[in-house]
């Protein structure tokens, strides 16, 4: 079985990419490589000549990687720059490239736009399609949402998601959660728990209060994890084997 961090494939990116720490662009390149790596999201790797090595200090090797600490002013990102010690021949193009731990950086930009979450996969589509399917959401036998105007999100490799207008959701059962998550295609999601018959079902629904422009149609809509609620579509109760679900599960919103 392949290691979770195994490099699967790479391709050159046409985008101007920069990564910032403490207000400083520590890497700035128009010649990055977009890298697919194991179970991890896509990432950008930078040619060594486009990295400010004056800000990097070598640190202990670990897990087959050379690592550097990054210091900008009073900020230190420990071991946040790295490079594999050995690479298979098919990925030799990365031998003079440096990767950065995504979460250790303050900001990533493509051209003049900030990247949230991780770089978008150019082979992934996220289509928000208006539908007239009749969607009913139930929890413990109680209807918590009923809509004939869902917005269906078809996302490559993911199960279909049904986003219902807020006005078609029973607002009196919703409890705002502190949880959030980030999707590079949709934006920052806010989560909701549902309280039915005195029982709280944590974080079973989410919405995008301020979606990214490409997913603007999701504004004012809410989606439920069909893994944790009962879903009926056009009179048919959905199950894990129902055709509307893809065979590749997603990791969240």
- CATH architecture tag of the largest domain: Beta Complex
Described by strand count, sense and barrel closure, the largest sheet is: 7 strands, antiparallel
CATH level-4 homologous superfamily of the largest domain:
Domain of unknown function (DUF427)
CA gyration radius, whole angstroms: 22 Å
Oligomer classification: single chain
Name the shape in a single word: elongated
Low-confidence stretches: 241-252
CATH level 1 class label of the largest domain = Mainly Beta
Please state roughly what percent of the residues sit in beta strands, choosing from under 5%, 5-15%, 15-25%, 25-35%, 35-45% or over 45%.
over 45%
Helix content: under 10%
Distance between the termini: 28 Å
Mean pLDDT: 92
Helix/strand order, N-terminal first: EEEEEEEEEEEEEEEEEEEEEE
Indicate the structural class: mainly beta
Instruction: Give the domain tally.
Output: 2
- Helix count, per DSSP? 0
Give me the count of strands: 22
* Widest beta sheet: strand line-up: 1-4-5-9-8-7-6
Describe the structure.
With about 250 residues, this protein is mainly beta. About 0% of the residues lie in helices and about 50% in strands. The protein has strands at about 5-10, 15-20, 25-30, 35, 40-45, 55-60, 65-70, 75-85, 95-100, 105-110, 115, 125-130, 135-140, 140-145, 150-155, 160-165, 175-185, 185-195, 200-205, 220-225, 230-235, 235. The protein has a seven-stranded antiparallel sheet, with no helix packed on it. A hairpin with a 5-residue loop joins strand 15 and strand 16. The protein is elongated.
């Amino acid at each position: 079985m392949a290691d979770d961090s195994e490099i699967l494939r790479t391709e050159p990116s046409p985008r101007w990419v920069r990564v910032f720490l403490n207000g400083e662009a520590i890497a700035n390149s128009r010649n990055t490589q977009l890298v697919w790596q194991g179970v991890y999201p896509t990432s950008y790797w930078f040619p060594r000549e486009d990295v400010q090595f004056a800000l990097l200090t070598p640190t202990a090797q670990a897990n087959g990687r050379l690592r550097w600490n990054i210091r900008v002013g009073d900020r230190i990102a420990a071991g946040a720059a790295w490079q594999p010690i050995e690479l298979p021949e098919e990925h030799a193009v990365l031998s003079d490239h440096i990767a950065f731990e995504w979460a250790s950086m303050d900001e990533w930009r493509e051209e003049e736009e900030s990247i949230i979450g991780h770089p978008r996969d150019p082979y992934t589509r996220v289509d928000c399609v208006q539908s007239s399917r009749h969607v009913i959401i139930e929890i413990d036998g109680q209807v918590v949402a009923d809509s004939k105007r869902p917005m269906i999100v078809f996302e490559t490799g993911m199960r279909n998601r049904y986003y219902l207008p807020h006005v078609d959701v029973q607002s009196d059962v919703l409890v705002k959660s502190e949880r959030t998550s980030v999707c590079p295609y949709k934006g920052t999601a806010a989560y909701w728990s549902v309280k039915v018959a005195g029982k709280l079902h944590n974080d079973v629904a989410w919405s995008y209060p301020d979606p990214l422009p490409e997913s603007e149609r999701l504004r004012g809509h809410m989606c439920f994890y069909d893994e944790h609620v009962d879903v009926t579509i056009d009179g048919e109760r959905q199950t894990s084997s129902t055709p509307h679900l893809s065979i590749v599960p997603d990791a969240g919103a």
